[in-house]
Specification:
heterodimer; A: alpha+beta; five-stranded antiparallel beta sheet; globular; disordered C terminus; B: alpha/beta; four-stranded parallel beta sheet; 6 helices
């Protein structure tokens, strides 16, 4: 039995639920929009994790779940909660449920996709860039600075420069225009600038040891906003990765503690394979809908126990890259993944 | 341009334990030991982090003239919980939250890029080091052979956020791990060794642990922090801390 946590109508969760049903996998949905009729108890004693989940009039011991897919929104922003006062019963119950759930997800022996502790690296792109480089991927030359003159010097070195947030907040990629008067404002808040890498984009979804690569055709700087930036939507098609690149993607995902990732690569015109980001909660539905790659089906099967579990545990949330190179080298030597 | 900082103590201005440690380190290390607060970082005249095929460089020019340069640093004691963004609050919550997220991301990035000893290295869950939820901590500690206070959390009761059994005695004992050595009171040598192993598993060389006696009087772990009160270890702790900073420093 697997547990799906989130909002049932949200596309990725809905697609995994549908895929589970099609494969005959029993799935329970913890609906974030109905927290008041959901109860959760967790107990940890002498190394044993026990507890009970109750949704409306049904209940399950926590060890009944062999896989858990987490696609949760910030519950404080849900329509049922956001206007409630701090001491309202609905808000307090939702807070306690989500606290207990997050605690359980860290200690559960089930296949959790993904544990909260593993999802933090994406909160700092410069931090994640340091991790990514350990797995043999290039990262774009990057300058985070509060000095406008240094940006001009950086721009002069490249055929175009883009800027984007360092964190995951307001993260839209945009080209830096000549003589942008807003450049002076960076004195108050350092901004991230990167060389513009010419080439084509590939999104790789890794699930355990499986990888699905999708090539993106678009002239936009940020293809997610292609319609706004160029007037036409991006087009997508399945893409074949080399065995080595696939092995690196699989190894990097597991070493970052992730069972499921969305890796943004650009195959540069100069031959580099540049990694921009490893997304720990990828909205894969857009890619599956456009390519028919069986991402949801593979994810549902993984949750139910298919294939090996490669995600390492990273207590405290800090990825250890000391052996990363050895790991992906070994993975590459072992040949293509099944 | 001022002198480059060699030994850096990053801490909040109210962090008495860090300020005490800074004075001790100034006595042990001949070179410059400088205290820098989040407020000083917020008003730096230059904040810069470069990533290139040749490596990573960090330059931070403070308003008081001091310069933090990654290639000149020799060691860092990092106890920053949160960047300071007070000067952005008047812009409204949206901008302030954005700037806070950016500042956390910036500090996580540059502190992780340093190749000198950083005690504690930041993690995505906490700039000051590893952050563990209470239940996760107790499960990991149990695997290290440390007895722990039972943990319960439920939507059906209003137990406190640490999930501890309220019937247990409240008397607490603290231990501090610094760079592989445990200091503290009422802990045995074998328990000290286990605390060190926990610190290593968490990649958190500065770790504070709080124990409560179980009904038989044996110490059981209740909580841990990457911001221990270093004063628990006295001058011997400063010796170990100075050694850990100097070891591996260029």
């Amino acid at each position: 039995m697997i547990l799906l946590c989130g909002i049932p109508s949200e596309s990725p969760l809905a697609m995994v639920a549908q895929a589970a049903a099609a494969r005959g996998i029993e799935a329970v949905t913890l609906n974030q929009r109905q927290t008041l009729c959901t109860d959760l108890t967790l107990r940890i004693d002498h190394g044993h994790v026990t507890g009970w989940l109750e949704i409306e009039d049904r209940g399950w011991p926590l060890d009944a779940f062999e896989g858990i897919y987490v696609r949760m929104m910030d519950h404080r922003e849900l329509p049922e909660i956001r206007d409630e006062p701090v001491n309202a019963r609905a808000r307090q119950h939702a807070d306690r449920l989500h606290d207990t759930l997050c605690e359980w997800l860290e200690v559960s022996p089930a296949r959790v996709v993904n544990r909260m502790s593993a999802m933090g690296s994406n909160s700092s792109k410069t931090y994640q860039a340091g991790l990514v480089r350990h797995f043999g991927f290039d990262t774009p030359e990057t300058l985070v600075t509060s000095n406008p003159a240094h940006v001009e010097e950086f721009r002069a070195r490249f055929d175009g420069v883009i800027y984007k947030s360092i964190s995951g907040v307001r993260s839209i990629v945009a080209p830096l225009q000549e003589r942008d008067p807003r450049l002076q404002r960076i004195r108050w808040c350092p901004v991230q600038f990167q060389e513009r890498v010419r080439g084509f984009d590939v999104r790789v979804h890794v699930i355990g040891q499986d990888a699905f690569a999708t090539r993106v055709h678009s002239g936009a700087t940020d293809y997610r906003y292609a319609t706004d930036q160029t007037g036409s939507a991006a087009s997508l098609e399945p893409f074949e990765l080399s065995d080595e690149i696939q092995a690196r993607c699989v190894a990097m995902t597991g070493e970052m503690g992730l069972a499921f990732s969305g890796i943004d690569l650009r195959f540069a015109d100069d031959g580099r394979v540049v990694c921009f980001e490893v997304n720990p909660s990828p909205g894969f539905s857009y890619y599956e809908a456009n390519t028919e790659q069986p991402i949801a089906e593979t994810l549902a099967a993984y949750l139910a126990g298919a294939g090996p579990e490669l995600a390492v545990r990273i207590p405290g949330g800090r990825t250890d890259t000391s052996s990363a190179l050895e790991h992906w080298s070994a993975a590459t030597a072992a040949g293509p993944m099944a | 341009m001022g002198a480059s900082v060699e030994w850096l103590i990053l801490c909040h201005s109210t962090d008495a334990a860090a300020l005490w440690a800074a004075r001790g380190l100034q006595r042990r290390l001949d070179e410059r030991v400088e205290v820098v607060t989040p407020e000083l970082l917020a008003f730096a005249t230059l904040s810069e982090h470069q990533i290139s095929p040749d490596g990573q460089l960090v330059h931070i020019q403070l308003a008081d003239g001091r310069l933090i340069r990654s290639e000149r640093l020799r060691g860092v004691v990092n106890r920053i919980v949160s960047p300071w963004v007070g000067h952005w609050l008047s812009n409204g919550p949206g901008d302030a939250e954005y700037v806070m997220a950016e500042a956390v991301a910036f500090h996580l990035g540059w502190l992780s890029a340093l190749t000198v000893p950083v005690l504690n290295p930041p993690s995505p869950s906490s700039l000051a080091g590893a952050f563990l939820r209470p239940g996760e901590l107790r499960l990991l500690a149990f695997q290290m052979g440390i007895a722990c206070v039972p943990f319960t959390r439920s939507t059906r009761d209003d137990r406190g956020p640490d999930g501890s059994d309220a019937s247990w005695p409240l008397r607490a004992a603290n231990a501090v791990v610094v760079a592989g050595r445990a200091f503290g009171v009422q802990t045995t040598p074998s328990l000290n060794d286990r605390c060190v192993r926990l610190s290593e598993a968490l990649q958190t060389p500065l770790l504070g642990l709080t124990f409560r006696p179980d009904p038989a009087g044996e110490p059981s772990l209740e909580c841990a922090t990457p911001l221990p009160d270093l004063r628990v270890g006295g001058e011997a702790l400063i010796d170990v801390l100075a050694g850990a900073l100097a070891e591996g420093a260029p």
